[in-house]
């Protein structure tokens, strides 16, 4: 598969058809694995990295899930192409910075991806729309078993899978979900919720994972420990916490409509007006307003289709996607202009928010019991 073919359509998990992804956008499972007989990538010499790639690439390309998939060594891709893949969550920023001896193999629907010679020899991931960690895990576990039949993993009977970073020892598994939490942000409850999540040993990160900023009211929640716990224990705890956070967000949305419907209408109406009529808009501002349109779609201000439209735009207005769309490198000012043009075009037929969907609800407690455990 060519790069242009891979990028032609949004990934299955981006669209989320038939799935409740109003709050939990996506679920992801990532597994870290290394070869038994070769130095891990961070300590490997160039030829050792090439040796690892020669072992891994045919093994991964031959997987049943990768039939008619995308496979490229990273030094054959342009920096712009790699950045587009980062924006699509197909490779990490760290992987994009690597050159010779690294590769990416992506399933054609982009639901399964494998990075070769990133921090570890193998970084495998499965992404699903909505809260569906179990399916993501089952999918990736089958891939992992198939790879294990072809190569020998670095494994210790006591420590489990050996990884470059000690925090990945054991299962080598990171499970995470991307959540859209605009109501908790608007009601100033987000700090309480994230603090409660951190206290029980889970990590909260931005839209592109570790070290990234939270944009568009999107937050990624994941496990931090992988040693001494089974995959099932990790999944059960994460599912429980994510469900609780999603409930708090749902409650916060209802509470905002009860207590301050004018503010909700104003925020969503302003976002609608600006996105439909702006001629210059920076990335951060656009993501914030698209987040509010997405919230409006869930609250009934717009037709349901607006949610999937916003999800697609959240990806397409990223800097590298804009430049790929334009076919040339763009400066920040040019990107802001083209971003506004694309958003205006996509939202051309979107009618003004329907405020009749707001109904009086019974009063509730101002400060919810977080109950995250």
Automatic annotation (TrEMBL):
SUPFAM superfamilies: Glutamine synthetase/guanido kinase. One of its GO terms (biological process) is phosphocreatine biosynthetic process. InterPro entries: Arg_Kinase, ATP-guanido_PTrfase, ATP-guanido_PTrfase_AS, ATP-guanido_PTrfase_cat, Gln_synth/guanido_kin_cat_dom. Residues 23-252 form the Phosphagen kinase C-terminal domain. Residues 353-373 are annotated as: Disordered. A motif (RDXXRA motif of the pArg binding pocket involved in allosteric regulation) lies at residues 335-340. The keyword Nucleotide-binding applies. Appears to be allosterically activated by the binding of pArg-containing polypeptides to the pArg-binding pocket localized in the C-terminal domain of McsB. It comes from the Bacteria. It catalyses: L-arginyl-[protein] + ATP = N(omega)-phospho-L-arginyl-[protein] + ADP + H(+). GO terms for molecular function: ATP binding; creatine kinase activity; protein arginine kinase activity. One of its GO terms (cellular component) is extracellular space. It is an enzyme of class 2 (transferase). Residues 360-373 have a biased composition (Acidic residues). Its EC number is 2.7.14.1. Belongs to the ATP:guanido phosphotransferase family. Catalyzes the specific phosphorylation of arginine residues in proteins. This is Protein-arginine kinase.
């Amino acid at each position: 598969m060519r790069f242009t073919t891979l990028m032609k359509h949004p990934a299955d998990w981006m669209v989320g058809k038939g799935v409740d992804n109003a709050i939990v956008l996506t679920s992801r499972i990532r597994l870290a694995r290394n070869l038994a007989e070769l130095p891990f990538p961070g300590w490997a010499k160039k030829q050792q990295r090439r040796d690892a790639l020669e072992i891994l690439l045919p093994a991964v390309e031959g997987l049943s899930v990768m039939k008619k998939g995308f496979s490229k060594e990273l030094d054959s891709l342009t920096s712009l192409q790699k950045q587009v893949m980062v924006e699509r969550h197909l490779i990490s920023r760290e992987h994009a910075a690597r050159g010779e001896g690294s590769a990416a193999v992506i399933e054609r629907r982009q639901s399964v991806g494998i990075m070769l010679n990133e921090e570890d020899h193998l970084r495998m991931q499965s992404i699903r729309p909505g809260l569906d960690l179990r399916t993501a895990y089952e999918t990736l576990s089958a891939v992992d078993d198939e790879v294990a039949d072809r190569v020998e993993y670095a494994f210790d009977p006591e420590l489990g899978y050996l990884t470059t970073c000690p925090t990945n020892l054991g299962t080598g598994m990171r499970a995470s979900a991307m959540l859209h939490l605009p109501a908790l942000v608007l009601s100033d409850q987000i700090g309480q919720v994230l603090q409660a999540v951190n206290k029980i040993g889970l990590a909260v990160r931005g839209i592109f994972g570790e070290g990234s900023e939270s944009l568009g009211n999107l937050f990624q929640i994941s496990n931090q420990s992988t040693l001494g716990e089974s995959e099932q224990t990790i999944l059960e705890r994460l599912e429980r916490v994510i469900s609780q956070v999603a409930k708090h967000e749902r409650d916060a949305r209802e509470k905002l409509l009860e207590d301050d419907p004018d503010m909700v209408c104003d925020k969503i109406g302003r976002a609608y007006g600006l996105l439909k009529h702006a001629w210059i808009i920076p990335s951060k501002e656009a993501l914030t307003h698209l987040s509010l349109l997405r919230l409006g779609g869930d609250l009934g201000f717009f037709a349901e289709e607006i949610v999937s439209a916003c999800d697609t735009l959240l990806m397409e207005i990223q800097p590298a996607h804009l430049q790929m769309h334009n076919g040339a490198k763009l400066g920040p000012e040019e990107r802001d202009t083209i971003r506004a043009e694309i958003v205006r075009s996509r939202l051309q037929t979107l009618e003004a928010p329907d405020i009749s969907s707001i109904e009086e609800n019974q009063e509730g407690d101002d400060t919810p019991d977080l109950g995250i455990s």
